[in-house]
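Q: Sequence in, structure out?
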Amino acid sequence: MPTSADAVKMVDSAKGLKDYYKAYFPIGVAVSMAALHGPDSALIVREFNSVTPENDMKMGPIHPSENVYNWKNADAIVEFAVSHHIKIRGHNLCWHNQEAAWMFTGPDGKQVSKELLLQRLKDHIFTVAKRYKGKIYAWDVVNEAVDDSDDTTQVYRKSNWYKICNGPEFIEAAFRYAHEADPQAKLFYNDYNSEHPVKREKIYKLLKYLVDKHVPIDGVGMQAHWKLNDPSPEDLRKALDEVTSLGLKVQFTELDITIRMPRPRPTPGSVPTASPMPADSGYTATAEARQIAQYKMAFDIFRQYKKSITGVTFWNVSDRSSWLDSRGGGLAGGAAAGANTPRVVRKAYPLLFDENRQRKKAYWSVVDFQ
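A: Exactly. Output:
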């Protein structure tokens, strides 16, 4: 006897994620230039109604030196989206990774002054945001500026931006510049591990600081690089409740759920082994079942918060190619983006489409809610 999900699959196979969630929020995907052609492009057009450039609008790639901008890839992604009536999220205007190193050196070859750094940031934001004004509906303005440690007294990441500005002034400035450059765009602060209690509270402090100073911020991007056991429903709801209590919207901006689990920590008194991670066991039935359950849990909660959630974006198109694959399967979570550790290739199988771009059972658990 077919299950409820089987029935949905048989009846509505022509519908895409965007159609199932039409009454809730846009469903997006991160794209590269390679995804604009061939099978990936057809899948994107069928399933999604929002795209995010994965790397091509970040400061380093798009603005590698003071008077040089690389518009080709970003323009092509925008043109693809506009031609298919797909919304565009801009990602991102200020980040401590993939940053433009020249920004931090002054004309004398020494560390740049705060005043010149902020002027350069303003010029960058004005140039990029104004170029795509009217086409990009939302920007990740500042990315990952909150400290990762368990030290509750250290709210901000000690990035070049923070050190040169001697505090978080650059965050406030970036939002004001972005709003001035494109007053209609929705402006987001974006970060990972937003559901973990210590970091969640640090993010809340940053957001409250911005709201109290009447900084033009519209919402928070929770990246959602998740695992089979993380976050818990309770932690996810708590994070959503804290953000929305400030009157801010939420977008889940980089969703993927790796099947890889970290090795258990050695018990006290035992000697840790130096053996490598086990061989890639593939997408097992056990991992599949747990991933299905985690995706279902997440989207059940997303729909309950539909008044506050204004978008959900997956990070990459299918299991054929995920950014997590070259980072040990994604065990480092969002922090892996800037990790300098050896790139161990290990499939993460984190998305709703398999290596052949076919819908996985997790897909049907996400759309079977009517």
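The chain has a mean pLDDT of 91.
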